[in-house]
Amino acid sequence: MKYQELRDNALQCSLEHHLCNVDDLLSEGKTPPDILTMVEEGNSGVVIYEPYEYYETSSLVESIENMRGVNLYEFMHVLTMVNGEEWATSYKKEEEV
What we know:
The chain is mainly α. Helix content is 73%, strand content 0%. It has helices at 3-18, 22-27, 32-41, 57-83, 85-96.
């Protein structure tokens, strides 16, 4: 798995936390970045969980992106624990190339 795929998985987890219909949108061929763009645009095709319905669009996007960062950090932490620090360093470097 490439680092960008890991970032997309972290974004998907965040989207699933904030939205009700992520699986449906993914089934339609949308990617996590596509769904985030839909949220940014205020697209009526996304169904927001009730606790987040009162967020302004920019606040909702910020909340989704913040949670993606937390998810990515946690994923990398676990992968580093399992595979070692050397693996994590080389994994990130592969993405920079």
